[in-house]
Amino acid sequence: MAPEPARLLTRDEVAHREVGRTRISRALALTMSGLFLATIAAVPLAQAIHDAAAYVRGDRASPLPQALDVLWSLPHAVAACRAARGDFLDRVLAANECLNEELRLYQGALRRQSFFAEVVVPPVNGLLTGRLGAGSEDVYVGRGGWLFYKADVDYVIGPPFLDPHRQAHRRGAGVVPDPRPAIMDLKRQLAARGIALVVMPVPVKPTIHPEALSAAYGADAPVLENASFAPWKADLEREGVLVFDVAELLRAARVSTGRPQFLRTDTHWSPGAAELAARALAEFLRQRVPLPAAPSPAYQAEAAEVTAQGDLAAMLRLPENAGRIGAETVTVHEVLTPALEPWRPSRAADVLVLGDSFSNIYSLELMGWGDSGGLVEHLALELGRPVDAVLRNAAGARATREMLGRQQARGRDRLAGKRVVIWQFAARELAFGDWRPVSLALGGAPALGFFVPAPGTAVTATGTVQAISAIPRQGRTPYRNHIMAVHLADVAVEGRNEPQEAVVYLWSMRNTMLTPAGRLRPGDSVTLRLRPWNDVAEMYGGMNRSELAEEGLYLQDHCWGEPVTP
Prior knowledge:
Distance between the termini: 99 Å
Strand order of the largest sheet: 4-3-9-7-8
Number of helices: 19
Strand content: 15-25%
Structural class: alpha/beta
Number of domains: 2
Number of strands: 15
Largest sheet: 5 strands, parallel
Low-confidence stretches: none
């Protein structure tokens, strides 16, 4: 009987047999294992060397590797447990809350101070952006070298910000997502004092310039807004809120003049667009909000040429030799007083502007685009009367209201004599802002107790860091500079016997780079040169900054601090 032919193996059987017989020499196995272990060890070793070098330079408080900083969380949690009131469960919850905050700070510090992020990110971004036009996770590269902020694009093309499911999701993240109640609450509080409210949402770049982002749009592209913008605006106007929408005006200017209404590599509008908006806003106020006659201060405008790099270009964190994303040159018309001094807000004015970086961009010199040439200055020029302003970069949904509310709570009535408040914010805040209500009730001065130097003086003090405010991640914010708040305990000041507490503002980021103060952690001892915050508020008050979580600290008088180099 003839033997049966051999059965052919299937591909799976062949693969299984070959895998089972894989051979590797001992030398190759040792080499591959060594390379694997060396690769794993290289990252923490390089970081440890980087941390030691930072300690030698004075940029770090400890020579130990940064990874060990998490161990400092344990004594802080124990202290929180002992200080907590209540039963055993209350103490455990207090310790857990302290640990959660410590871990948040620890993770943020790891991201900000990563050696490989500093070394690898710039050349990789240079390749992705300069060669491939890919941008980064927060910056899109458009047509002709235009840059767009991801949050702006997401606002325009994303889901309606009034969608109930979206609002429920955002509410779960601990924010108040619906802007309408906060706006109506502000209107009611102002109306009780006979003050009108004008809401001014400034359109974002893709709303006015979709043609610079996508070839699907031409030179006559329409205004592109979030699907909820029109219903939101209609709801407010139905309730009697004055809404000044400048989007169609900017689009018409883009079509008729052919000139960009936004900076090519920045999130903000051009100087011409800001001036156009100021003229239209002044006319809107004349028609809708009767203001008494006032002596004209005879302001005048003077042209100044400014060259700067856009905030979006800075966010890309490109290497220094990257030349494709360059600087822009614009003409800013700076508003001057009759004495030819830069225009400044007047607290005695009957018009108050609450504004974000769209108001600051050509007004706050530290932003790099000139001084006294922004929206508020040109509004004063067009109205021919003084204007007051409370301005701060970022978080336009709540930051300026909180600043105003803080002054009111301290008994400093910023609303005295006001007839109209103009609330300007970037339109993207409608989708991403935190719209919690803010009380503007007038209170009394808080009890003294926290240390602040006398006005016009500066002292050297040493203290222990108790808490720090949140610090933005490098490359994730369109602002080059950031101010953090620090709560200091055991503050020792020369000439004073008893230690005190202090709340201090410090630079945490300058020109997108983390400062030594930005590396502080709770428990660190620090020596600072302290001045009253009020002495520098006019210079730094409009910068992007974060506050401490404890509300009582927010109401205390603050210091401005500068680290003292040993």
